[in-house]
Amino acid sequence: MEGIGNTMQKKAAELERMAEVLITGEQLRLRLHEEKVIKDRRHHLRTYPNCFVAKELIDWLIDHKEASDREIAIKLMQKLLDQSIIHHVCDEHKEFKDVKLFYRFRKDDGTFPLDNEAKVFMRGQRLFEKLMSTENTLVQTREEESVLFERTLLGCEFVDWLIQEGEASTREDAEQLCRRLLEHGIIQHVSNKHHFVDSNLLYQFRMNFRRRRRLLELLSERCRSIPESHDSPFCLRKQNTDSGNTSFLSVSPTKEIKIISAVRRSSMSSSCGSSGYYSSSPILSSSPPVLCNPKSVLKRQVNSEQLQSPGGPYMKRTFTIVGDAVGWGFVVRGSKPCHIQAVDPSGPAAAAGMKVCQFVVSVNGLNVLHLDYRTVSNLILTGPRTIVMEVMEEIDC
Fold it and tell me: What is the pTM assigned to this prediction?
């Protein structure tokens, strides 16, 4: 079999870093649209559509904990400018300045450079979305050379799927497409020993396009220092990237920040439960071991009868949550009933008032008290962008 050389691995890593910048920039662009930071603006009797004010954006980044100070915020936006993701509306400034200048995302004015690398990346993202959005048995835990790997694709089955979906007309075309995806760091052989071959070798997607990126990751020299959970493409935003103790950020009922230590596990079949970080749009980790989600935040388990008991210490609340560019921003876990395990402080769920330790009663009118978190997760992920959730929370919480 043809092996993967060091040169190709380095190139794939460089392209993966470029892809991470593109994803991070796109997630930021969609968030800024949602919050009306990007809008049409007038200056000297001229209207500049879909732009933002540099000084106002820096304020926004600091307010939303995306940057610790103005200097860091400028460096972050300069990174996007250097990568041709944003530009000054008149292209008169090559530096991002903390003043009242108008800048715009190139995707909003059609000037984003679609070179070959970007086209391959966008196709890989589309294939991943299609693969993850359909019910199939392609992605499984499998064994190669006596080692178990999670979320794997059998090379020959992936080729079959590409032809079936109309992505390639022949097996040769499908194989060449997969080789380009591998060379661009989008997929990989599970142990990085082989190029893509139409065979029984196992491959994985390297990238999780659905993970919510933090802008501060743009300043990291490494492509990605935190391995993502293989058992779900929906991961919590992780902090303390330089320390060995990885932790998850969540919002407690008192709106304080809790750091919940992560635990490790070796496979999806582990008895340790996991949960999904809901996202509407995904690169999988390239090296085991993987992280599972944190231990339950519940102080004690509660059953459905206790929740619904008249005069019990629980009150019902209803949230209408509109998913943003990267999802709804919360995690469910548990079974009969499920509970809110974690909430992204900057996500739509937190804005609606959702908190950890709340129990999920219904999703879009369907009672889910008797369901486990996997079924509830599927209901949300396959439903509309706007979800209506009823929850019960402890009155003393």
Answer: 0.50
